[in-house]
Design goal:
By secondary structure, the chain is an alpha/beta fold. The protein is built from six helices and seven strands.
Length: 196
Amino acid sequence: MTERAWEEKLKIRTAGREDAHADALHYPYEPTPYDVLERLGKSRYLTRKSRLVDYGCGKGRVGFYLRQTVGCTVTGIEYDRRLWQAALDNLARSGAHGVRFVCTAAERYIVDSDDCFYFFNPFSVEILRAVMGQILESYYAQPRQMRLFFYYPSGDYLAWLLSQDILTLTDEIDCRDLFSGENPREKILVFELPGS
């Protein structure tokens, strides 16, 4: 399906890049292409029982798509109040259940029973470290298998992630064929924390 067809099917408006509130720590909003989300959804890493957190969710595309196609529960975290409001407007339009949006800084979100985490370069490595601190705190309090998905990972993200002994890079979902050229960043890296 085309981007427009998905937007109509899901009854949402998430297209377009926005960088009005971008700075050195928070990067511009750019939605993950639906073709990439389809790859993730079909990878079988997510199930109806998954509890996914989408960091830097913007207008909520990831949550609406994965809730519709996989059935998982999704929490979108967004620090920009305008984007968060756009996500809430999409939620009202779509009538979706099992999707919620929280307006807070990513590093302040307290991870509860969430077990999957999605990132499309929403913020700096400094913030990623703090977010990982919250994820690990929850993991140590309640050990369980956790999966982290990084779409279009930056070199800084990759270097830091690979330096973390507790994380295991378990898969690379190749998305290069979805786009022209051979951009090596067109992939979703899947990292895992072991189950109890």
